[in-house]
Amino acid sequence: MSLLGCAALLVCWMHCAAQRACEGPPPRRVKEVPAKTWDKPPYPHGTQAIYNCRPGYVKVGRVGFRCIDGVWKELSPGTECRNKPCGHPGDTDFGFFELTSGTEFVFGARVEYRCNDGYQMLSQRNYRECQADGWSNDIPHCEVIKCLPVQEPENGRIIMTGAFELGQEYSFGQVVNFECNAKYMLVGAKEIVCSANGEWSSDVPQCKEINCDVPEILHGYVRSPRKTYKENELLQFFCEEGYKYGSKADALCTASGWNPPPYCTEIVCSRPVISSGNFIPQKDKYTVGNTITVECDDGFHFRAITGRSTAECTKNGWVPEPACVRKPCEYPPIENGKLTDSHERYRDYYFPKRFGQTVDYHCLNGYSTPTGHYWVRITCTERGWVPEPKCLSKYISTIYSILG
Fold it and tell me: Are 376 and 359 contacting, i.e. CB atoms less than 8 angstroms apart?
């Protein structure tokens, strides 16, 4: 080969070798960093670059690149450093946590802590972060929320189960009960609760002397000039005409008010039910002063002997009672006959007769009773006098006897 040919071949070889080198350093990686400094390019074909894991990551296999024909290619494609695990971040008493960044407890993860209702975060930081050297800061701490001390109400006291001291703070959920001294009543909540926000559920109640104001009584009034009554004092009241006491004519002042509540109710007479008769006017209810007129069926009359057949609605009900009864037996006028002397002489006294009562009669000269007996006893019944009192002429009586 000539000298000129050898020179050309050498130039060609040198040019081809320069093209196969990698002009730049190995690629930058998020989780890995080259094990040495690469600041003197170019890098010949076949050069290897080995990587170490950045802080917070751990190796899973060998991570590296090789220069091949001017391009950096992975030695083991897909191999990379993994996030370093931190383990469980730790639970906190009276609280809980949730993962707010990431899906596992590995480098870069963040958990935030929350306190249960009634508790508050005592720590300055409510979170922990998984760092290269483990979890940051201590586990956050929750403490119970407190409510300010409670003072006893004037003329009252605090009631609590368990030991307690006046002036102490109370924890969330604690309940304070109150009661008043005798003759005082509680105004406000009987119990208050220390809430989750550190506030009491209600203000401390007051104990006020038990007083009852004179009430407004519809259709009623109070004669006493007093405006208020104390506990166990009695109020007397009255109802207007046509009204009556709802339950009693007086009421007792108690811690819960008037007992029983004083009220007046309209006096109402119910619609009467009259057997063997009827009445007018017909209404659903009747008030004091209303009257009805009773009409009895044949053979009956108004029960009360007043000369009238009306009844009035009064505060005591219907007066007189509206009822129809069978007519009693009046004095029996007997043609040609007489009752006993006393019944004849004092007929207004002896009559009318009630059912079941009896009288005797006899006939005058020339006349005879249907039975022929001198004295015949008749009885007052629903059908009148039985047997019917009759006096027949003796001639007719004889015919009856013959026919009988």
Answer: no
Q: Domain check: are 395 and 365 in the same one?
A: yes
H or E element: which one contains 288?
none
pLDDT tens string 78-106: 888 999 999 999 999 999 999 999 999 99
Same domain, 344 and 398: yes
Query: What are the backbone angles phi and psi of residue 150, rounded to the nearest 5°?
Result: -115, 135
Query: Are 366 and 399 in the same domain?
Result: yes
Whole-angstrom distance, CA of residue 395 vs CA of residue 387: 21
* One domain for residues 261 and 273: no
The answer to whether residue 12 is domain-embedded is: no
Nearest to 343 by CA among 363, 367, 360: 360
What is the reported pLDDT for 71?
93
Span 199-219, mean pLDDT?
A: 93
Tell me which residue range forms the domain holding 376. Answer: 337-403
CA–CA separation, 289 and 284 (whole Å): 15
Residue type, 41: P
Tally the domains of the chain: 6
Helix (H) or strand (E) holding 318: strand 317-319
Task: Output the CA torsion sign for 302, 308, 313, 318.
Answer: negative
Q: Which long-range contacts (CB under 8 A, 24 or more apart) does 112-120 make?
A: 113/139, 113/140, 113/142, 115/142, 116/142, 117/172, 117/196, 118/144, 118/145, 118/171, 118/172, 118/173, 118/196, 119/94, 119/95, 119/143, 119/144, 119/145, 119/172, 120/145, 120/198
- Could you give the C-alpha distances from 83 to 56, 131, 132, 259, in angstroms and in order? 6, 10, 9, 79
DSSP class per residue in 98-149: EEEESSSSBTT-EEEEEEPTTEEE-SS--EEEEETTEE-SPPP-EEE-EE--
Same domain membership, residue 345 and residue 399: yes
CATH number of the domain to which 74 belongs: 2.10.70.10
Q: Does 1 score more than 70 pLDDT?
A: no
Structural domain ending residue among the three candidates 240, 266, 292: 266
Q: Is residue 322 part of a domain?
A: yes
Judged against a pLDDT cut of 50, whether residue 15 lies above it is answered with: no
Q: Is residue 313 part of a domain?
A: yes
Q: Mean pLDDT over all residues of the chain?
A: 88
Residue 163, in any domain of the structure: yes
